[in-house]
Automatic annotation (TrEMBL):
It comes from Ferrovum myxofaciens. The active site is at E56. Pfam families: dCMP_cyt_deam_1. Its cofactor is Zn(2+). GO terms for biological process: tRNA wobble adenosine to inosine editing. Binds 1 zinc ion per subunit. It comes from the Bacteria. Zn(2+) binds at H54, C84, C87. GO terms for molecular function: tRNA-specific adenosine-34 deaminase activity; zinc ion binding. The lineage of its organism: Bacteria, Pseudomonadati, Pseudomonadota, Betaproteobacteria, Ferrovales. Transmembrane segments: none annotated. PROSITE patterns: CYT_DCMP_DEAMINASES_1, CYT_DCMP_DEAMINASES_2. Homodimer. This is tRNA-specific adenosine deaminase. HAMAP family: tRNA_aden_deaminase.
Length: 151
């Protein structure tokens, strides 16, 4: 599982790099079901004029269209940055099995950094969360993006 997680996270990192090239905050995501990529995307709220155009949303929307189903059971979402509250909500509505993320997000992270929407027993669907996969590469993309923007 670990090698597979790192391989898919490598793909998500490539997508994050595409976001940076487009001037968007570099976050990439992949939606995988039984080893098959069903959806992918990168952060694009600026170019899409859409505050919901996070990488996770793009990957989940694409996968739902691919499967022609609003629920995505037995699926794993790979994302380079810890999901926010909005994405955590969609992850729960889509009934994802697992989320694997890279860097923690101390400002908006909803998997434990700011809040933990996946550990509240009142929310009835429980997705497994695994953080810390390719953390350093994910965080370095973000750091270099913001460094370049400041200078
Ligand atoms: Zn989000």
């Amino acid at each position: 599982m670990k090698d597979e997680d790192e391989a898919f996270m490598g793909e998500a990192l490539n997508l994050a790099q595409q976001a940076a090239q487009a001037g968007e905050v570099p976050v990439g995501a992949l939606l995988v079901q039984e080893g098959r990529i069903l959806g992918y995307g990168h952060n694009s709220p600026l170019s899409a004029c859409d505050p919901s155009a996070h990488a996770e949303m793009q990957a989940i929307r694409m996968a739902a269209r691919t499967l022609n189903n609003y629920r995505l059971p037995e699926c794993t979402l790979y994302v380079t940055l810890e999901p926010c509250c909005m994405c955590a909500g969609v992850i729960q509505h889509a009934r994802l099995k697992r989320v694997v993320y890279g860097a923690a997000d101390p400002k908006t992270g909803a998997c434990g950094s700011v809040v933990d929407l996946f550990s509240d027993p009142r929310l009835n669907h429980h997705t497994q969360i695994l953080g810390g996969v390719c953390t350093e590469a994910s965080a370095e993309l973000l750091r270099s993006f913001f460094r370049a923007r400041r200078s």
